[in-house]
Amino acid sequence: MSRTNLYDDAFTFAIDAVDADGKRKEKLAGANNICAANRAFDELLFHFNPGEILLLRQRGRVIRREVAVGGYRERVIAEALAAQGNSQPAP
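Below the sequence we write its predicted structure tokens.
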């Protein structure tokens, strides 16, 4: 049987979307490695609508609390164009 904590997480680090009062709306990801958890958190900030609040927790302790910035689609297009050597999208 796996060991879980107060929030019923099997992972040491968890990423959650929360409302303005800090109540969990959605469990997004989990990891046992802080580097992996931080990288996933950074990526998820771009996947959610601007203004949504994300938390990175170590069990019950909040390590990071940030507001999502959105813009994932735009970032992916810009990175693809940069990899092709283009600076602007084709019409």
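The chain has one domain: 13-84.
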